[in-house]
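Quick one: structure for this chain?
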Amino acid sequence: MNSRHGVSPKDCVEDAKSAVRWMRQNAAMLGIDPNRIVAAGGSAGGHIAACTALASGLDAAGEDVKISSKPNALVLFNPVLRLDVPQLLGFVGRDEALAKAISPTLYLTKDAPPTLLLYGSADWLAAQGDEFMKKSKELGHRAEMFTAEGQGHGFFSRPPWLEKTTQRMDEFLVSIGYLGAKAASATATGTKTSMKGWELYIWQEGGDTYFSLLPGTNRLKSDDEIGKAAVKGIDAIKPKLAELKAREMVFPCGRRLPDQAPQEPAKAIKDYCQKIGLDVRR
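Got it. Here's what it folds into:
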């Protein structure tokens, strides 16, 4: 966030706490249960979500601190849980005091919100998850950890792990009474959804047209990812599009995200997506 907006991790934690407090304060308007707020995030976002529950202080000036900024549960995808380690001190300007202040594991207590951690076994941050789980067990706190064998950082944003981690998250939310079993089953076996829409890569090669549908993320996809998901011909991509939830956003592009898709197949895809209720952008 510092490279994009010039803000520090401390600012991000403060902002996240304000967001939880705002949701709880406006629960009636939003139509939500103020006692069932789940903070979730991946990587740095997981770190910030964890801090809303575990780091003390860091409240924005002028806020009503009588309204709790602590969520009721945590779902954390490969989160940073200790910033006070040599590899990560650079993110806080080597400020050891600040790094400790926003290292969630240090402040874990028995009555902390129930927590689900999800890591790839090849992610070096998984060791922080193991440390969190060990302390959780010692304290009698409720925490669970899902491990994806052989997977690295950010594994959860692409198939098949997107579906597997979503199902595991649903199971956790059912177990704490936040989600009905029927709804969780529908999520696990029904239509596909992505919070950031779907990137549809379209390109032509050797007289054939190829399509690759991948969940939207904040990073550029590699050639290998795009190639592995590729299918040949519009009839091959239609069933994959039909699996998406109605009103999901689809972003057609060329072989690379910034490129324009070939005109004729792009038009055919747009027409088909609109026919089945998808929101085509770009």
